[in-house]
Amino acid sequence: MLSHGARTHQRRVFICLAVLCTVLLSCCCLDMRLCLQLLTISVGCAAPAALAASVQPSGTLALGPSVFTAPGAFPTSLFQAYFNDPTATSAQPQPVISDPVTHKKYPLALTDPDHIPQADNVDPHPLPPKASDSKLLQQAMAQIQSIRSNPIFANSTCAACQATLVVGKMLALAAPGQGPALSVFICNLFDENGNCEANFGANALGSPITQVLANADVAGADGQMFCENFLGASKCPILPTSTLNLTTWFAKPKPNPLPAPKKPSGERLRVLHLSDVHIDPRFANGAEANCTTGLCCRENAFNAQSPNHTLSPAPRYGSFLCDSPISLIGAAVESIPVLTDTKDTGFAWTVYTGDLVSHDSENQLSRDYILYTETLLYSVFKQTVGSGPVYAALGNHDSYDQALDAPHAIGGELANQFSWNYDHVAGLWEHEGWIPQSAANLARAHYAAYMVRRSDGLRIITLNTDLWYRANYFNYINVTQMDPSGMLRFLTDELQDAEDAGERVWILGHVLSGWDGTNAMKNPTNLFYQIVDRFSPHVIANIFWGHTHEDQLSIFYANNGTNMSAETAQTVSWIGPSLTPLTNLNAGFRVYEVDSATFDIVDAHTWRSDVNSFPALDPQTAHGPTFVYEYSTREAYGANITQWGPNDPLNATWWHLVTEQMEANPDLVTLANAIDTAQTFNNFQGKESVRTPPVHGGLRRGEDMLYPQRVIEPRAAELPGWVRVGTMMNKSSQERGCPCRCPRRASAGAGCY
Question: What region holds the Calcineurin-like phosphoesterase domain (predicted)?
């Protein structure tokens, strides 16, 4: 046992050693001898003898020679084995290395200078685990939320929208089953619709939108136009029309000079033009006819000012904000043969320019609802318009989902996803005896579009204009292309065949081209315009559209309308009045007098029924709606076209002369003719509806036609959320809860039809 003094000495030694270490570290830059002296003074203890002995005075340290030359040969004793000759001078020695820990012998390939590896495909490269579909959806939503809140996108709603679509595209490709849920999320985020789940969920538009996101270039032109049109990204610039190269499009140049016009026969055929019947089999007598959301005259319709009490009961024959009840359709088809004096003879043929189905919202539609409507109405036509064939085109509402038709180029099973409808209507048209089997086969293969070559020398070509309609989501795949569906290739080839055979053509469709650009995609309709220019006026006799519900017309000019004159006017497109009163219109139809040899229209007659009179018919059953003769086109507009004979056609030249008269004399816009000054140019378009707004400011020339300037005069709650621009009746989905899907821009032609 140590004595107290010994223990004290021991503690001093330990302390000295500790202090020694600290001082040495802090004094490393000093002379070591001085450092030791400081140590002794500071702690009162002697430095260890061994340490003191090792410190020599500066300059006295023993060193080896100042120069050494290593041997030229590699010291082979460093390693036990080599892959090559370590004494050779042509390459570096490659020793064999054995790892004492892993017991692994490393191969020459690891360090072989002649074969340096380009990729490590042996070692693990960890990745995060594959996310479940639900987690992908959660992450997509989180990223979209971040995009919305990121200040980088604060001044660019267009960029934010496209970035959102990029996230959506990745989800659509990786977990397509989650696409509809993301569509609903985006809908709610952008506040696009009051019922996002019903309209964009898995049982509605969620599926086609997912397809579009998966196939479109959403970061490029496709996404830019998608955002501009559907998501209200007003700062997205509208893409200009793509440069059109027609070098190889047409098989032959336009004949110069043109073939001599066909000589009129003097025999006039009667042809019926029906459009936009929009039967509502769910029409409820007595329901709210002046509703403020959705389609009126339905049990679920109401007016926000009186949600629990009906303000305006729906008459059984229809009302201004409702589609056609079957009672109105029955009255119309009973009236047509009597009024047109075709009860015994029937019509030579009938053209139907689309839209059989009602304006239901997405969640209220189904395939069977479409098929039911098609079967019912084509059967009615067969029984009532006589033995002549009915040539029909599909409208944007004659599909499910509405306005959607996918191009075959989408590929795989999706290429035929709408064939159920094409097969059905083709079968019905063939069953009714309206088209031959060859035309039915064309319809099945070409989106329900077909060509019929009549025995009298006229060819009827129908088009599915959903394939250029702005509301068709599938049209936002490859927006820079002119004909992604191939429909216009089909049209061009058929027109070339007609030209080669010396025959004339009528073209039928639903959504009109041209106009002011708000109904149709620019690139396909630009190509269509060039096709019309190439084959007019010698091949294309007339074009027929529907869709707007109004009585209208447009003129196609040569050279893109750069010079609008009687000499450059090429072809007329007739836009048929609707039978449905929607929106704020009277019900109507038209009959053409057609020369049997030239197939030019010599006159056109329009009838209408006053929807404002329908409520008075409810208390009795003795009388139904009255259809009255409205006007003769030749008489209404041709009084001052003195150079035109009574049998000359109402062709593009005649119509241009009419527009010149209107421009020169604005009174002609108001006074249709001297016989009945109540029939005005403006009122003819609305079929003389009491709700047709007046004209202010004369005419304005559009892309390919003139049309009156209209302003709205609100009538209390009668016209909630409706605006008039040009000749189009537009309905803003934001203002009135539009039951159909349409482009967001509230400008002429952008309404719901």
Answer: 269-550
Under DSSP, is residue 315 helix (H, G, I), strand (E, B) or coil?
coil
Which residues fall within 8 angstroms of residue 185, CB to CB, at 6 or more apart? 141, 144
> Does 109 share its domain with 161?
no
In a domain, residue 78? The reply is yes
Mean pLDDT of 659-676: 61
- Amino acid 447 reads Y
For residue 218, give its domain range: 133-202+204-234
Please tell me the least confidently modeled range out of 449-453, 642-646, 737-741: 737-741
Cβ pair 722, 686 in contact under 8 A? no
Give the distance from CA 265 to its chain's centroid. Answer: 45
Give the C-alpha separation, 523 to 468, whole Å. 9
How far is the CA of 376 from the CAs of 301, 329, 382, in angstroms? 25, 11, 10
641 within some domain: no
pLDDT value of position 516: 55
Summarize pLDDT for 232-274 with one digit per residue, the tens: 656 788 888 999 999 999 999 999 999 999 999 999 999 999 9
Question: Is 665 within a domain?
Answer: no
Q: Are 591 and 271 in contact (CB under 8 A)?
A: yes
User: What's the pTM?
Assistant: 0.81
C-alpha 190/C-alpha 164 separation (Å) is 11
Are 101 and 186 contained in the same domain?
Answer: no
Range 324-352 average pLDDT: 97
Q: Which of 244, 248, 228 is nearest to 236 (CA)?
A: 228
Distance CA 464, CA 523 (A): 16
